[in-house]
Design goal:
7-stranded mixed β-sheet, Rossmann fold, 17 helices, 15% strand, single chain, alpha/beta
């Protein structure tokens, strides 16, 4: 190599790459522990040493230092001198960050996800849901009986909603819709953002009664334009709207259950109404790297649901009175559009 040639990066041996992938579960748990200890919140007002953080978190200082050093090595924290501070990534672990991922990281490392994924092989060998095998019941009845775990899950879903609300409300043209409904829309974060950007539209938030009690519509200034309706989407969806939003709903369920939900929606939806499924859409190219394929394994293990390709969504819609239109490639999720025929 002459003096003018660019220096080549050394090639990483394939076995080293595989080992790095295999140890990803340790990174997940390190992030979860950091989230539980509220490290990013404690660093929000400035850098602190491991000793200061250990005193604030009631942890073993040498062991905490090793956690902080590992988080710095993956870019979540930064060490300067003897103190650690948040990076841009680390800021996303703060509970007050507008796109906080703290609850989501905690959830991924909590026993419900952690132990279920340890039994992934059970799902692969039998097609059974690993969560049911691990905990003796499906995930949603489990949450009904375990309020602390349910609270973490709800906060995690809220954080996901906050992260995608801006992308969805900006990535789709809602103009012209008089009524926009969010089906199983949680506390209403996504619907609120859409209504804020479409001031002439009214909204309907359809959810279970206990979830509606915690809605944030008044705080977001859209409560006067939004009707609250409680119900169970497996029983009926008595909601008439021009556009129906469903975020992270259909992927929770197998094909038979998904068809049942969409059929209930179709019974109320007027001809020409649009349904927007906000999901991670699987690429038709099986070799293409994507988060959706990892998410698909999560659904296999946790709920028995699945992430789907555009063809699979088309097949679902054909059974329910809707017609697939297109996929809008928003980030971090995609919008799958269909129309009532």
């Amino acid at each position: 190599m002459d003096a003018t040639s660019p220096e080549l990066e050394p090639e990483i041996p394939p076995q080293a790459v595989i080992m790095q992938m295999a140890m990803g579960f340790i990174v997940s748990q390190a992030l979860a522990v950091g989230a539980r200890l509220e490290i990013a919140d404690l660093l929000a007002d400035g850098a602190k040493s491991a000793a200061e953080l250990a005193a604030l978190t009631a942890t073993h200082e040498p062991s905490l230092y090793r956690l902080l050093r590992a988080l710095a090595s993956i870019g979540v924290l930064r060490k300067d001198g003897g103190k650690f501070s948040n990076t841009t990534l680390g800021d996303c672990l703060r509970s007050d960050h507008p796109a906080s991922m703290r609850a989501a990281l905690q959830m991924m490392g909590d026993p419900e996800h952690w132990n279920s994924h340890g039994n992934m092989q059970q799902s692969i060998k039998t097609g059974e849901i690993a969560f049911d095998y691990t905990f003796g019941m499906p995930v949603f009845p489990y949450f009904a009986q375990n309020p602390k775990a349910a609270e973490v899950f709800d906060r995690s879903m809220t954080s996901f909603s906050a992260a995608v609300a801006e992308a969805v409300s900006s990535g789709y043209d809602f103009s012209g819709a008089e009524t926009i409904a969010d089906i199983a829309g949680g506390r209403g974060i996504l619907l609120a953002k859409v209504l804020q950007k479409n001031p002439s539209a009214n909204g309907i938030l359809f959810e279970q009664a206990h979830v509606l009690e915690g809605n944030i519509l008044a705080n977001e200034g859209v409560a006067e334009r939004t009707e609250l309706k409680s119900g169970d989407f497996f029983a009926e969806i008595p909601v008439v709207a021009d556009i129906y939003l469903m975020k992270f709903i259909i992927h929770d369920w197998n094909d038979e259950q998904s068809v049942a939900i969409l059929n209930n929606l179709a019974k109320s939806a007027p001809k020409g109404a649009k349904v927007l499924l906000v999901e991670t859409v699987v690429e038709e190219d099986d070799n293409a790297p994507s988060l959706s394929k990892i998410m698909d394994l999560n659904m296999l293990v946790m709920t028995g649901g699945k992430e789907r390709t555009p063809r699979e969504y088309t097949a679902l819609f054909e059974q329910t009175g809707f017609e697939f239109v297109k996929v809008y490639p928003t980030a971090p999720l995609q919008i799958v559009e269909a129309v009532k025929v």
